[in-house]
Design brief:
Chain B: InterPro entries: Diverse_substr_monoxygenases, Luciferase-like_dom, Luciferase-like_sf, NTA_MOA. The complex is a heterodimer of chains A (about 450) and B (about 350). Chain A is of the alpha/beta class and about 450 residues long. In chain B, helix 1 packs parallel to helix 10 and helix 3 packs across helix 5. Chain B starts with 10 loop residues before the first strand and ends with a helix. Chain B has a domain of about 250 residues: Luciferase-like domain (TIM Barrel, Alpha-Beta Barrel), CATH 3.20.20.30. The chains are: A alpha/beta (about 450), B alpha/beta (about 350). The complex binds flavin mononucleotide.
């Protein structure tokens, strides 16, 4: 008794009271999405989007998320054909989803390099009006000459310019969102900066959320700084407890200098979940999904992306190549790089030798392990722990099946999170800001000038 | 099919524009009303130069809550990216299951140019030339995926047959696009292109690219002449003139009882007004006007802009449309499900697939 009394009070969950935020990521155009499964449906039909959005709303998720890619990926100079490809344009889909959902937040990824502030601010303000305050904008900065070939703007911006442009882009959008008077009268704006020199009147009154929620996805120091200064949510790849805690501390630590507090920026890693009735069954299912994700062809392709050369003569069930990778070969275009190819190749060869793995087995082993694997109880506990230990504020769940990939999670895990007191049992507000517990942006005072 | 005399199917469309309206419901109400009248399509205007929401967004919001009616937002081409424009229109076609159209328009004012700060204002004639190029590249990008490009071939591990995806390599006067589109070919192949020739300088773009052209005319004889002229020009561009629907644009003010305010006004023709021809009177005489023009083979139909949105659309749907149906001039239900089917227009062949066919 006495010894227990000396110990610090256990950190009771309900006292911590950190609620988990959840989002549903529509399956992307990469090999996380399994199209060979008989349950896999269209990536394009509205019915698929509607299914996943309704599932997410049934699960009381904060938001539904759509990624974007403005040029089809290429490999060896040809359109990449092994993964799902082709998708409808995000904002248009979200406006349609606003008709079949009532509370769910609706997040679209829209590039800040290949768009202009006036039009983008207008499209998001429109979504916010039409959805009654549920719009979110994932500001991405991918910019390469390859993608530029589809646009008037063309060209390429280096990383520093990408983020100064993105920061000024978002700041300008906020000026536009703020431009009408609270009484609903248009008021002229003028913005002059490094990237934009524009003036006039915005075409919409202040939208229900004031400003749509701003999400950032990017990991460089510039990206983190941009998020700390301007974003409401970060979509991150740091989905393990250790990496998550480090990232969380790093980014939240950057907030103070912008006059912001920890609650103003939510960290949500993209994660995958595999459930089973027993731990063993979940592991077995997870391994089965990984085999589906890494077809023999996909294994070779993954290797070619690292080695930077044609490896089509290699046997996916045979050993890894002895030759060294060619750095910056340009073999693959339009996808994110995995780090220094020589180091990766060396690691993979070592792994293959140590465990006696073939090419395909090595790729399966290294690239696609799911984030949370287990029984619904175990997964609920892990998710909760992840958030309570400040490795994240919530999760963007990336299902591997279109469109039914989150059905089980919503049916089996959400009720357990609710039982733990870690998740809402109903939507208490109508806007995405209210779901996320974010402050309403304060409209500028009437007499304040709008000129930047 | 519409006969060359114009005495085929009658086509009716209505504008659902409403001032100072930013939420979805009022647009939904009007579109549903138009759909109850079995109208071919609704239009919603858009401009960066005046208050209003993004029109394509509004009609996307309306799409899942309606079932058959065509949805035609104005989409401006001057300060927007052609690649984004085509993707958004294709997506409207996906979310509406084959009911999308678009009405290209230009932004010619200095004020609009300053909202973007990217290019100086240019003369409308020049900008309509560019709009034509945007319409051109849009159809190419819609065709850049063949309909059967998605194969899901487990044996070879291939999701698509990349031979059925095409670069468009379009080089216009002011922009270039590599392609292919990021959006697979939309359900209609090409969403319907509606060109408003009451805009100065849009005439040639209509003759060349429009599936539906909106025209101004003071009476049936003038309308017939404009229609014949457009069809001739379309033929000069190598098009089948029967693949062009010409609709008279008419503002309607149905506030004045059952019959026309001015005797003979309905049957005789609309009155000129600053905003184009205006019919003022009751739904019955409007039905007479539509009947007379249609019987004369003057036009393929009408695009009607209610002066008082809700009131006039209600009178149109409850008064004029039933009369036209009773006379056997207008459909009583939608026999087809896509907008093209309402218009009696074929689903276009894929220009790249046709090419491949020629080679083999
Ligand atoms: C989790 C995550 C998701 C992303 N999603 C997209 C996307 O959908 N579309 C896109 O163009 N870029 C996307 N990006 C790319 C980022 O916007 C950014 O361009 C990239 O991470 C490089 O920026 P950085 O150097 O700051 O990391 C994503 C990045 C991350 C980390």
């Amino acid at each position: 008794m006495t010894s227990t009394a000396k110990q610090p009070k256990p950190r009771g969950r309900r006292q911590l009271n950190k609620h988990i935020h959840l989002a549903a990521h529509f399956p992307g155009v990469n090999n996380t999405t399994v199209w060979t499964d008989p349950r896999s449906r269209s990536q394009i039909d509205f019915a698929s989007f509607e299914h996943l959005a309704r599932t997410a709303e049934r699960g009381l998720f904060d938001f539904f998320f759509l990624a974007e890619g403005l040029r089809l990926r290429e490999h060896k100079g040809r359109v990449h054909d092994l993964d799902v490809v082709g998708r409808p344009e995000s904002l248009t889909v979200l406006n349609a989803l606003a008709a079949v959902t009532e509370r769910l937040g609706l997040a679209a990824t829209v590039n800040a390099t290949f768009n202009e502030p006036y039009e983008t601010a207008r499209r998001f303000a429109t979504l916010d009006h039409l959805s009654g305050g549920r719009a979110a904008w994932n500001v991405v900065t991918s910019s390469d000459a390859f993608t530029g070939e589809n646009f008037r703007r063309g060209g390429y911006l280096d990383r520093a310019d990408r983020y100064t442009r993105a920061a000024e882009f978002v700041a300008t959008a906020r000026e536009l969102w703020d431009s009408w008077t609270p009484e609903g009268q248009p008021r002229p704006f003028a913005h002059t900066g490094q990237h934009f020199d524009i003036e006039g009147e915005f075409t919409l009154p202040r939208s229900p959320q004031g400003h749509p929620v701003v999400i950032q996805a990017g990991d460089s120091p510039e990206g983190r700084e941009f998020a700390a200064s301007a974003a409401d949510v970060i979509f991150t790849r740091h989905g393990t407890p250790e990496a998550g805690r480090a990232f969380y501390a790093d980014v939240k630590g950057r907030l103070a200098k912008y006059g912001r507090t920890a609650g103003d920026l939510k960290i949500m890693p993209g994660v995958t979940v595999v459930l089973g009735d027993t731990a063993a069954e979940a592991q077995e299912r997870a391994a089965g999904i990984r085999r589906q994700q890494v077809s023999p062809q996909n294994a070779l392709l993954t290797l070619e992306q690292i080695w930077g050369v044609d490896l089509s003569s290699y046997d996916p069930d045979g050993p890894l190549p002895d030759i060294d990778p060619v750095v910056d070969s340009g073999l693959s275009q339009g996808r994110t790089k995995r780090g220094d190819p020589r180091a990766v190749a060396e690691q993979w060869r070592a792994l293959s030798r140590a465990k006696g793995l073939s090419i395909r087995q090595t790729v399966i082993e290294t690239t696609t392990r799911q984030s949370f694997i287990g029984t619904p109880q175990a997964v609920a506990a892990e998710l909760d722990e992840f958030v309570q230990s400040d490795a994240a504020d919530g999760f963007i769940l990336v299902p591997h099946l279109t469109p039914s990939g989150l059905d089980e999670f919503v049916d089996q895990v959400v009720p357990l999170l609710q039982e733990r007191g870690a998740y809402r049992t109903e939507y208490t507000g109508t806007t995405l800001r209210s779901h996320l517990g974010l402050k309403e942006p304060v409209p500028p005072a009437r007499e304040e000038g709008l000129t930047a | 099919m519409t006969a060359s005399t114009g005495r085929g199917l009658l086509h009716l469309a209505a504008a659902v524009d409403q001032p100072d309206t930013y939420e979805a419901d009022p647009y939904l109400t009007l579109t549903r009303l138009a759909e109850r009248g079995a109208l071919d399509f609704v239009t919603l205007g858009d401009s960066f130069g005046r208050p209003g929401p993004d029109a394509l967004a509004v009609l996307s919001r309306v799409a899942p809550a309606t079932a058959r009616i065509g949805l035609v937002p104005t989409v401006t081409t001057t300060h927007t990216e052609p690649f984004h424009v085509q993707a958004a229109v294709a997506t409207l076609d996906w979310v509406s299951r084959g009911r999308a159209g678009w009405r290209p328009e230009v932004s010619a004012t200095e004020e609009e140019a300053r909202l973007f700060g990217r290019r100086a204002a240019a003369p409308a004639a020049e900008l309509w030339g560019e709009a034509g190029e945007v319409a051109d590249v849009a159809t190419r990008l819609w065709d850049s995926w063949e309909d059967d490009a998605e194969i899901r071939d487990v044996a070879t591990g291939r999701f698509i047959d990349r031979e059925k995806l095409h670069y468009v390599d379009f080089q216009g006067a002011t922009f270039s696009v590599r392609g292919p589109s990021i959006v697979p070919r939309p359900p209609q192949g090409h969403p319907v292109t509606v060109v408003d020739t009451t805009q100065q300088h849009a005439y040639d773009v209509a003759a060349r690219h429009a599936d539906v052209a909106l025209v101004n005319a003071a009476g049936p004889a003038q309308a017939a002449a404009v229609r014949a002229g457009l069809r001739r020009r379309a033929a000069e561009y190598g098009r089948d003139p029967d693949a062009l629907r010409v609709l008279a644009a008419l503002r309607i003010d149905l506030g004045g009882g059952e019959h026309a305010a001015v005797p003979g006004h309905g049957g005789g023709g609309p009155l000129p007004s600053d905003l184009g021809p205006l019919y003022r009177g009751g739904p019955v005489d409007l039905a007479d006007l539509v009947t007379a023009w249609h019987r004369a083979g003057a036009v393929d139909g009408f695009h009607l802009t209610p002066v008082v949105p809700r009131r006039d659309l209600e009178r149109l749907v409850n008064g004029t449309v039933p009369l036209l149906q009773h006379r056997g001039l207008f459909r009583t239900f939608y026999p087809g499900s896509t907008f093209r089917e309402h218009l009696g227009l074929a689903r276009p062949a894929n220009q790249y697939a046709a090419l491949a066919g020629d080679l083999s």
